[in-house]
Design brief:
Largest sheet of chain C: 7 strands, mixed
Number of domains of chain C: 3
CATH class of the largest domain in chain A: Alpha Beta
Order of helices and strands of chain A: EEHEEEHHHH
Number of helices of chain C: 16
Helix content of chain A: 25-40%
Structural class of chain C: alpha+beta
CATH class of the largest domain in chain C: Alpha Beta
CATH architecture of the largest domain in chain A: Roll
Number of strands of chain C: 26
CATH architecture of the largest domain in chain C: 2-Layer Sandwich
Oligomer: heterotrimer
Helix content of chain C: 25-40%
CATH superfamily of the largest domain in chain C: Aldehyde oxidase/xanthine dehydrogenase, molybdopterin binding domain
Largest sheet of chain A: 5 strands, mixed
Shape of chain A: globular
Largest interface: A-C, 56 and 55 residues
Chains: A alpha+beta, B alpha+beta, C alpha+beta
Strand content of chain A: 15-25%
Distance between the termini of chain A: 54 Å
Distance between the termini of chain C: 69 Å
Shape of chain C: globular
Strand content of chain C: 25-35%
Chain lengths: 160, 292, 684
């Protein structure tokens, strides 16, 4: 029986510690040990992106990262996008443009959009489509998600 | 879809990692970006006793030209390849491939070393290495060695690396003037494995005659395939020579041994190889001539 | 041990990651269930030991929800846990429990099953000539339907084709799952579901418990598309385990399990024959359908045969028709509903033949369809009431700007009738307390945002602003009865029930308050009203699609734009109508170009991941233009059905557009990649 490993990481700006089995996936650390259930599991095979979080500033699929790999890392989940009650630009845009239906892919989409806009503040529609191409949505047909990301860029750029 | 138990160590040096691999033998496995290995663990298709995570070894993520080679540390992320202006300009085949591997999120973690040492014939970088005279530098308990790409991919999910060897660097020679490359992949949808993929790397002289040609094939055999006869057929020929191109394309298809699957029949994949080789030669030669 | 579900505006909730899905539930002492499944498509079970097995839990599954009401073949039951034979890859054989999901999966090793593999029946075409899968049956025929009368045809044009639609997996992003908890008397089940009432009925039946000892609570549900209306073996096992261990038990499906063991849709082959005049008028239709019903004669197999063939004539006037269909067993997971559930099949088969008539006569595809439309409602020889289609199709063609666009573009069209699942009715409850209004519907949103129109309708009826109205998740303890959400029914029936319940509540308040009645006084009091709404009229509606295809730079055909024109009656929330159309269009296109579930000859799944199953990404999604015709229905709130329209109308239109762009006929979906090339691939 492999022993547990002590890890510490920063999640949504807070120092967190945990003792985890080496096999524990980051998504389960977040959801079950840290209670951050906004990050979802959709496909188990690194395709759907429902589990997308920011790991050291990059969007990754947390179902395909071991919690121990994230030792010392900075993680941002959907719960960390808003500042208190103040929703972030992508969150507001997804509400304004109805970029969601069942809500299951939404946290991953928001993080992917957040990452995209961080690297590319004014993306073309093609760049938006490419930026969220690692995230599946079964409800919206993406149309309103793309509208939402475009609108989020607009909101962000208006505040500069 | 949850991994079985294993131990985990994150050594700080390559030597430490190699020592662990030597001591633990076949039951130890190297973890890099995890984008191929962790899915296998979740399916419980792999059940190593120990994972040796080389992600915390400093200094394995360099990407630069030196001593006549482009050198890519094993832990360079695929996304970093795709962002590199140097690659886009001078190593377009690698740049092309880095944009079609999996999806943007997987590329943020997936590594050069992992893509190559996983030995998956459907991965995209192996064919590029076969086309580009790539070499793999490995460190093992017996010391360091360099393995040519054409000797590296020995079978499906099997490479020339010994169980106690770690791939540390992937490199290709700095191309001659008037060189170009391309990687073309036909996939169903973003993130899919290729129905077929073709890598071409070539150099031409002032008369547009091919002086060097490399052709690698993805997902049409037990390993990535080096289409040697096709390469030879193009040597000394101009890429505008339609007969030569057609012959090379046919020879490349002969080298392919695809199987029928959900992406298409074996025959279709061979025809795809012919189409992509012809197109790849054209695109690579355009790039050699300074276009795009 | 109650699970709290917030009723804040779901969009604000979801973007914060505060949705409450079933896998988010964490209860004290909760165990995780892992199911041990058959690795064979067909085998005799010699022995099974370890974990919970069918020797302990002797129970079988019942068809409930959308699957109920077919001609049930009762000679063979579908066991919760197999003890004698297994008949599809992934069939549950045993279950184990662990303190967490990892440990539960590890415990699968404690189960020992000995199998004797048998040759599976995989090809429905050969099912009837193969020996019976179940020894209790004399052959593999599940259901047979004959509609209309055979006729002798005498027409200058006779056209035939064999058409096929692959099996598909519903693939909601949230997989199936539940948490079952037992307090010694009451079983509470938290569910990702389309119908809490079907779940209660099914669990009660399988477990032999009275319904009043079971409470089913719906959690936020991350899509369903047909997969969450009925019950599955895992639910019965989890409930059994919770009662046995007196600890809450969670089971969450993984995607591999979804693709192996969640009922699949489509899987139909049609031999179609039409008889037409030179002027394009179709005089007769003969059809023979073969349906791949999967391993057990429960579920979709029982009702799909007659359901599809009854709809074959669609919106057209075809005086003679004769349709035979058979549903046959194979060693695959059962057939079940997938968005459209029979409607897309009928439309695809008919529309493909209309295009064939166009090609044969040289008439434009729109003209052929127009000539076969009707100006009067009628009942087809296959027994379906059909609304007049000519005026609507004229409207649609104008909206599409078809005649000008066809000059420059490669277009495909479709025209269809949406037959919603409007029988059976639906319930709703409205309550006023503490200055706020609560609304429940018996069949609930599983991701479409039905709460928005429910609030809107209650607001309109009661005159109370929407910000004072809370939409509640469905819970069997909140309503006295209910049906479920599927078959494009909820806006009409659930919406109708909200209107009725609101009116009842208002009438009660008026009676009590008399002349003092005002909106403010209404909110000061406490009132409750429940209504069950059953429409009297048939509520079929019409829809049309146009798709435009182009050739990509790579040289392959692709869809560039999909335009819809659907009669949605009075649209309740316009952006939701658009959202439904956009999402359904993605599924319709997936069906044309990518989506399918494939098995090898020995019954192994060849498409074990969500990527293999072919879900469309943002990068493959074309432009969608969603237009609606608004012809009020006879209902008080004027609504008509919508949810399934895009999966009905998009596949034939998109298939035709690709056909026009590529110059080759397509009869099978999905179209193989090889056939999408516009350039000639080099040959050997």
């Amino acid at each position: 029986m492999a022993g547990k490993i002590h890890i510490s990481l920063t999640v949504n700006g807070k120092e967190r510690e945990a003792n985890v089995q080496p096999r524990r996936l980051l998504v389960h650390l977040l959801r079950e040990d840290l209670g951050l259930t906004g990050t979802h599991v959709g496909c188990d095979t690194t395709h759907c992106g429902a589990c997308t979080v920011m790991l050291n500033g990059k969007a990754v699929k947390s179902c395909t990262v071991l919690a121990v790999q994230a030792d010392g890392a900075e993680v941002l989940t959907v719960e960390g996008l808003a500042e208190g009650e103040e929703l972030s630009a992508v969150q507001r845009a997804f509400i304004a443009k109805h970029g969601l239906q069942c809500g299951y892919c939404t946290p991953g989409m928001l993080i992917a959009a957040h990452a995209l806009l961080q690297n590319n503040p004014d993306p073309t529609d093609e760049e938006i489509r490419d930026g969220i191409s690692g995230n599946l949505c079964r409800c919206t047909g993406y149309t309103k998600i793309i509208d939402s990301v475009r609108y989020a860029a607009k909101i962000k750029n208006a505040h500069k | 879809m949850n991994p079985p138990e294993f131990e985990y160590v994150a050594p700080k040096t390559v030597q430490e990692a190699v020592d662990l691999l030597k001591v633990r033998g076949e039951w130890a496995k190297v973890l890099a970006g995890g984008q191929s290995l962790i899915p296998l663990l979740k399916l419980r298709l792999a059940s190593p006793a120990l994972l040796v995570d080389i992600g915390k070894v400093p200094g394995l993520d360099y990407l630069a030209e030196s001593d006549g080679h482009l050198r890519m540390g094993a832990m360079v992320r695929v996304a970093d390849l795709n962002r590199s202006a140097l690659l886009k300009k001078k190593y377009p085949a690698i740049h092309d491939a880095s944009g079609v591997i999996a999806d943007p999120l997987v590329r943020n973690l997936g590594t050069v070393g992992g893509n190559i040492s996983h030995g998956d014939p459907a991965n995209d970088l192996p064919a590029v290495m076969l086309a580009s005279e790539g070499e793999m530098a490995a460190t093992g308990s017996g010391g360091n060695r360099v393995i040519k790409a054409e000797d590296f991919f020995t079978d499906t999910f099997t490479t020339a690396l010994a169980h106690d060897e770690i791939l540390t660097e992937v490199r290709v020679p700095v191309p001659l003037p008037r060189s170009g490359g391309a990687y073309l992949k036909v996939e169903q949808k973003v993130g899919d494995f290729a129905s077929a993929g073709v890598a071409v790397q070539l150099s031409v002289d002032r008369a547009s005659m091919c002086t060097k040609v490399g052709i690698g094939l993805t997902a049409v055999g037990p390993t990535a395939v080096k289409a040697k006869k096709a390469e030879e057929a193009m040597l000394g020929k101009q890429v505008t020579d339609r007969v030569a191109v057609a012959e090379a394309a046919a020879l490349a298809a002969d080298a392919a041994t695809p199987t029928s699957d959900i992406r298409g029949t074996a025959e279709y994949k061979k025809r795809l190889v012919r189409l992509l080789v012809a197109r790849g030669l054209k695109r690579a030669s355009e790039r050699a001539g300074g276009k795009e | 041990m109650a699970v709290e579900i917030d009723s804040e505006d779901p969009e604000r909730f979801f973007v914060r990651g505060k949705g409450r899905y079933v896998d988010d539930i964490k209860l004290e002492g909760m165990l995780h269930l892992h199911v041990v499944r058959s690795p064979y498509a067909r085998a005799r079970v010699i022995s099974v030991s370890g974990g919970i097995t069918g020797n302990e839990l002797r129970a079988s599954m019942e068809a409930v929800g959308e699957d109920a009401g077919g001609e049930e073949n009762t000679s063979v039951s579908f066991p919760v846990l197999a003890t004698e034979t297994v008949n599809y890859v992934g069939q549950p054989v045993a279950a184990v429990l662990g303190d967490d999901r990892y440990e539960a999966e590890d415990r699968a090793d404690e189960v020992d099953v000995q199998y004797e593999p048998l040759t599976p029946v995989m090809d429905p075409e050969r099912s009837l000539e193969s020996g019976p899968i179940h020894r209790q049956m004399k052959d593999n025929l599940v259901a047979e339907s004959v509609l209309g009368k055979d006729f002798k045809a005498n027409a200058p044009i006779e056209l035939e084709d064999t058409l096929r639609m692959a099996r598909m997996s519903p693939n909601p992003l949230e997989p199936r799952g539940l948490v079952a908890a037992y307090d010694g008397s009451m079983l509470t089940v938290y569910a990702s579901t389309q119908s809490v009432f079907s779940w209660r009925e099914g669990l009660a039946g399988s477990l032999g418990m009275p319904e009043d000892k079971i409470r089913v609570v719906q959690m936020d549900t991350g899509g369903a598309f047909g997969s969450k209306g009925g019950i599955y073996p895992e639910y019965v096992v989890a409930a059994h385990a919770a009662m046995k261990t007196k600890r809450p038990v969670k089971w969450i499906e993984n995607r591999y399990e979804h693709l192996m063991t969640t009922d699949q849709g489509r899987g139909v082959r049609a031999k179609m024959k039409v008889y037409a005049e030179r002027n394009g008028k179709v005089k007769g239709l003969k059809a023979d359908l073969l349906i791949d019903a999967g391993a057990y004669p429960v579920g979709g197999g029982g009702w799909v045969a007659s359901w599809i063939s009854s709809q074959l004539i669609g919106p057209y006037y075809i005086p003679k028709a004769y349709a035979t269909s058979r549903a046959v067993l194979t060693n695959k997971v059962n057939l079940g509903p997938y968005r459209g559930a029979g409607r897309p099949e009928a439309a695809f088969f008919m529309e493909r033949m209309m295009d064939k008539v166009a090609d044969e006569t040289g008439l434009d595809q729109a003209e052929v369809r127009m000539r076969n439309t009707t100006t009067k409602g009628w009942t087809t020889p296959l027994g379906r009431k059909t609304p007049p289609s000519k005026p609507f199709f004229n409207e649609a063609l104008r909206a599409f700007k078809y005649s000008s666009r066809k000059k420059k573009e490669k277009l495909g069209l479709s025209l269809f009738v949406l037959v919603p699942a409007s029988s059976g009715g639906e319930s709703a409850k409205v309550a006023v307390k503490g200055g706020r209004v609560k609304v429940w519907m018996g069949g609930n949103s599983h991701g479409q945002g039905h709460g928005l129109f429910a609030k809107m309708l209650a607001s309109k009826e009661l005159g109370v602003p929407e910000n004072l109205i809370d939409f509640q998740h469905t819970d069997t303890s909140a309503l006295s009865s209910g049906v479920g959400s599927w078959g494009s029914r909820t806006a009409m029936l659930g919406g109708g029930a909200v209107v009725e319940a609101s009116r009842k509540l208002k009438a009660a308040a008026k009676k009590k308050l008399g002349k003092r009645y005002s909106k403010a006084r209404l909110l000061e009091g406490e009132y409750e009203a429940e209504a069950f709404f059953k429409p009297k009229d048939f509520l079929n509606s019409l829809g049309a699609n146009m798709a435009s295809a182009r050739i990509t730079k790579v040289g392959m055909g692709t869809i560039d734009e999909v335009v819809s024109y659907y009669d949605v009656g009075t649209p309740l929330t316009p952006y939701m109508v658009e959202s439904q159309i956009e999402g359904g269009t993605a599924q319709g296109l997936g069906e044309v170009m990518y989506e399918q579930v494939l098995y090898s000859e020995d019954g192994q799944l060849l498409t074990p991941s969500i990527a293999d199953a072919g879900l469309i990404h943002s990068t493959e999604m074309p432009k969608v233009v969603a237009m609606t015709g608004t012809h009020r229905s006879s209902l008080k709130h004027g609504a008509k059905g919508l949810g399934e329209s895009p999966t009905i109308g998009v596949p034939p239109a998109a298939t035709r557009a690709l056909e026009v762009a590529l110059g080759r006929r397509f009869s099978y979906l999905p179209i193989e990649q090889e056939k999408l090339w516009a350039v000639e691939l080099p040959k050997e």
